[in-house]
Each structure stands twice: as C-alpha cells, then as structure tokens.
Specification:
The chain has 274 residues and is an alpha/beta fold. It is built from seven helices and seven strands, in the order αβαβββαβααβααβ. A seven-stranded mixed β-sheet has the order 3-2-1-4-5-7-6, sandwiched between helices. Strand 1, helix 2 and strand 2 form a beta-alpha-beta unit.
Length: 274
C-alpha cells in the first residue's frame, strides 16, 4: 500500500489499536479468522496488507502445513513461525507472485489502497484456478440507527463526511467495498456474496455479542480520533488546523455523550456465506 494515512503504522499506539481491531473482527466472525470455508489441503495463503501480522501468525498456527505469506510496505517483526514468510511489497503495484495462492485475505485496506481495480486484478492473477478471495472492510458513510440523528446534526457523522472528502483528495475511496462485487465479476470471479454488518459504537445493542463489539469499537474509534483525527482533516481543502481540531473534539464528545441515544455505528462489508 503506497501510503498509510492514519498514523505511523509502526508506532506502539497504532499497533495496539490494530490488535484491538483484530479482536473485534474475531468477535464479529464468532471466533473465526475468516468466513470462507477452506479445504483441508489448503497449502498457500496470502495476507495482503498484513499490518501487525496478527492475522497471518494466527493462520500460520492454525494451518501448520500451509505456507502463509504476509505482504505489506512496513513489515512487522515476527519470529518463531517457520511456515510464515513476510514480503515487502506495495499492494498498489504489481505483486511479486503468480498463480500461487489458494486463499487471499485482505482486511481494513481502504486506508492504504489507492488503486482498487489494480489490487483486485492482482489478486485474480495471483490466485490459483479455483482459489478464493476474502475482503472485509469499513464503508462510508458513518451512520446513526436513530433516523432523526442520521445526518450532520451528529458531529461524529459530520466528521466522517469531512474525513471522506480529505481521503478522496489523497486518492482513497472509502466506499470502495460497495463496488467490489461489480469489479470482481468483471475479472471473472464467481460466487461473490457480501453483506453489511453494523459495528455499534457503544453498548446500545440488545445483542450481548454486539454489546461487546460496540464497547471495543468505541474504544478503538476514540483512539483513532485522538491519534489521527486532526491529521486526516487537515487534508480537507476547506478545513484549517484549528477547525480540524475543533471538529475532531466535537466528534469525540458526540461519541462519548450520545453514542447510545443516537445509536451510532460503522458499516462493515463482509462476505455473506450464510
């Protein structure tokens, strides 16, 4: 991925936030590392944009006879996993593989991938015939389950709209996940199934598991706003540093005070294999 636009991905704070995000995904997928059903003989797995490496390490442990490869432009420091290889490569450019993998996984990549048609084309090229691709990501806009608050009267939603405009200026499309199905069909992928899951912000859901997800998602998003909120908004053509700081603070207050009453949430695109 050409540039990671949150904060420095190798910082301790960002590593901890990404590992927390991994735990939220485990809750979302009911303890599973992926939705796709893999054959017992799976022997080659790629984690595109592997980040801290936590998913790749877990997959290598779960599939000791498979070769697992983690690819990113900033590689984590990992040792003691003999069937795991790390490759320094930019997912926005040509990948250093060909017809190699039975399973390719990509999660939360919208903050780094600028060329989604190219990324998906490379995934197609690097899969073996019959191989499988799984993508999980956030999609905009940010939302409120209370229709009366599902607009820019919410500072959280207002921050999301401003951030999206800033990201567009940096070549990032935070609605890309909703476009994957059409692009994958054009490449020749079959049996494409996806659905949208809500990640509540806070413990407002009636479902116990979603309450857990909501508590951790709120913690994760507050950390994200505190470390990267101002920096992201300064890429907006009409927002200066002072206004960026003010809107980020208002978004934090909205989350802290109103996440339950407004029923704020993030929309996640995940495979639907139900």
């Amino acid at each position: 991925m050409t540039q990671y636009l949150m904060v420095q991905s190798e910082s301790q704070e960002e590593r901890e936030r990404l590992d927390l995000q991994h735990h939220i995904w485990l809750l979302t997928l009911k303890g599973h590392l992926h939705v796709t059903t893999l054959p017992p003989e799976v022997d080659s797995i790629l984690d595109a944009g592997c980040g801290t490496g936590v998913w790749a390490v877990a997959m290598a442990k779960n599939h000791p006879s498979a070769h697992v490869c983690g690819m990113d432009i900033t590689l984590p420091v990992i040792s003691g996993q003999p069937n795991l290889t790390l490759v320094d490569s930019d997912a926005d450019k040509a990948w250093p593989f060909k017809n190699q993998f039975m399973f390719i996984h990509g999660r939360m990549l919208t903050s780094g991938v600028h060329n989604w048609p190219g990324f998906l084309s490379e995934a197609w090229r690097c899969l073996r015939p019959g191989g499988q691709l799984e993508l999980l990501d956030v999609t905009h806009p940010y939302r409120a389950d209370d229709p009366s608050c599902d607009n820019e009267s919410s500072a959280f939603i207002r921050w999301g709209h401003a951030a999206e405009k800033s990201w567009i200026g940096n070549g990032l499309d935070y609605r890309s996940a909703a476009k994957h199905e059409h692009r994958l069909q054009q490449l020749g992928f079959r049996n494409i199934r996806q659905t949208t899951r809500k990640w509540p912000l806070g413990e407002w859901s009636d479902n116990v598991r979603d309450q857990q997800i909501g508590r951790l998602t709120l913690q994760n998003f507050e950390a994200f706003l505190k470390t990267a909120g101002n920096k992201i908004l300064t890429g907006h053509p009409d927002i200066n540093e002072e206004d960026a700081a003010k809107l980020s603070e208002q978004a934090l207050e909205d989350l802290g005070q109103n996440c339950a009453s407004k029923r704020l949430y993030l929309s996640m695109q995940v495979p639907d294999l139900s």
